[in-house]
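INPUT
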Amino acid sequence: MQRQGRGRALAILWGALKIVATAAVTFLGLLFVTFVIGRLVPVDPVLAVVGDRATASTYDRVFKELGLDQPIWVQFWLYLTDVFRGDFGESFLTKRPILQDIGRVFPATLELATTGVIIGTVLGIPLGVLAAVRQGGLTDQVVRVIGLVGYSAPIFWLALLGLLLFYARLGWVAGPGRVDIAYEYDFTVRTGILLLDTALQGRWAAFGNVFSHLILPGSLLGYFSMAYISRMTRSFMLGELAQEYVIAARVKGVPEWRIIWVHALKNAAVPLITVVVLSYMHLLEGSVLTETVFAWPGLGMYLTNSLQNADMNAVLGCTLLIGTCFVGLNMLSDLLYRLLDPRVRRRG
Amino acid sequence: MTVAPHVPSRRDWLLTEQPASRRQARLGQAYRTWLAFRGNPLAMVGLGIIVALILVAVFADLIAPYNPIVGGDLRTERLLPPSAAHLMGTDDQARDIFSRLVHGSRLTLMVVALVAVIATPIGVFVGTTAGYFGGWVDTVLMRVTDVFLAFPRLILALAFVAALGPGIENAIIAIAITSWPPYARLARAETLTIRDSDFIAAIRLQGASSARIIWGHVVPLCTSSVIVRVTFDMAGIILTAAGLGFIGLGAQPPQPEWGAMIAAGRRYLIDQWWVATMPGLAIFVVSLGFNFLGDGLRDVLDPKARK
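OUTPUT
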């Protein structure tokens, strides 16, 4: 009995290792792609360092220093060692190391995307469940329309319409930016998550202002996340409600609400976790265009600014970081799936 | 009382249970597919939108009342609200927005068509090859596919365009590079279900080469599900292209690209809402059309995927 238990633990460990190894290979590929994109740039990297009035000897020296005389795989190796030391080069715009820049802007994006995921999950799962229970009913149609709009409308366009309606016309929310200038020095930035910072320091007026700035872009991202989550919840729940255990529970006299919200939803929860994680990743992507519209000083706006100024180091740093988040979150959802789903767990 | 003699109509000829020729069978099959498709009203709406888009793109010169690039009088015709003379108003350069939208349909259609033409064959080739050969070929090709899937599509496209330089051609290349992996996954999955069929074994015993088997027998069986997927993706392609245009990395001014037009209208959002709103509406309607069409096509072409 105990031996069997140890065997199972080993199987789980082996499965987990396989997932991690796959993620590592993908990550290496990711690095290679960003490396190649970096080489595609029609700008001479040496001239970017020495300027176009440098002498030929200086040019040659820097050419060698950058390792450009080496074969391509050595160059890739140099790039790898740089990346693993956390050295993504210097931003052309801010003259600071890329990693430092990203660390500064990332909390803003994290706050925005997290708000989006919370809104999307809290609204999307119940909507999806209701749509599955009354298939073809009103909620089902609503979920369908929400999904269609979510898949068809450009996010930056909806953002502009939202600003026009809720900020300019109705005045319900604060406009672009994260916080009004009047409140900017009312609290100190510690975590970079402004809702948290203001609440911890008890600056409730500033908290209200931050919330008012956050709610519109957050809801917008939440809408897209809700569109995806509700649609997936609906299809998982339809699958679960067609199972025999549901009939068995009904025969036994279990109340219908309990069958739906406890028995079936519990079984649908495992794939749903993957969906929520996936939607989190898509919000990172969606935030690029949203932040541009809302002048939200996060990763998306940093990336857009760098793009418009041909700041290639920054662009590649952001790309790599977002790609890494993708790979990491994917790995996490695979691991969670393995840990939580007894069917997968038993197969090892 | 006479019984009218039964004259076989064209419909009967198409729907006959005993087709007399291969051509009749094929046409009959197509007709049945069409009948099933016609039964889905949303799919017909989608088809209508896409046909309208194509017609507008073809006859843009006849439909557009004004020049899309050169505006009117800058003193009197800037930022006019929608009216009978200017259906959707004018922009900051005194250009008729409706005319620009009409001409912009050509760019949208070009992006969608070129991306589909470039990305689909790559995806199908990679997927069928990986699925058919299996083993290390499969492992290597699928790892590569996973790497491309590991980037969010827009971010990877942004990085490529940043490296290649802004412009509509580079945007198309970048979107194509980021679009093929899902098709590869799909084609591989389809190939795996076909690979061990008896008919493939029979062809192999007749001495057909792997290339012949893949292109002649595996690829045709993958096409319908790939077509459905590509149609669904068209909406995504349009949105990505519009996003690139919005950031300023897609089509360059003065080209009437819809995403770039929204970006240009941003400054006038609060007082002249129509400048940014109208192009967004066009993007929305066309994407919706492709989504409806994809829904309908899935139901008739890919019954397995129906939910």
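end of record. The longest helix of chain B spans residues 210-247.
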